[in-house]
Amino acid sequence: MKFKRFYPRRSRAEWLIFGPFLNGLFLLFLCVAAGAFVVSPGRVKVYLPKTSTSDILKDENPIIVITGEDVIYFQNKIISLKELKMRLRQQFHPGSLLLIRFDRRSSMAAVVDVWNVCREVGFEKVNIATTSN
Asked: Which among 16, 36, 63, 132 counts the fewest CB atoms within 10 Å?
């Protein structure tokens, strides 16, 4: 016995078209939303202190950035002092040059803490990034 249908019957193939489309929209939304939270190189904004004398250093040296809120970045990732000490020991030899970029609003205690970690690891040449007058 067959019953009369009041709606047109659709095949499964018609409904499967929307699955990949919705997945693509969802992935696009995730990429856009996650892109707002990713910090790319050079995007950490710091206002460097001014100095009358300065030397030009290459960017290939390891750079530690301290923001005005005393947040420490190493290789464009937020890092604690313990992690910084461990990663400096693992990745760089102590004789190499190190650069600290800090915001002029950051506390001197944060700068000195990072400087002490670098000296404990064995870096002899630790420089501070500044802007010239």
From this structure: 36
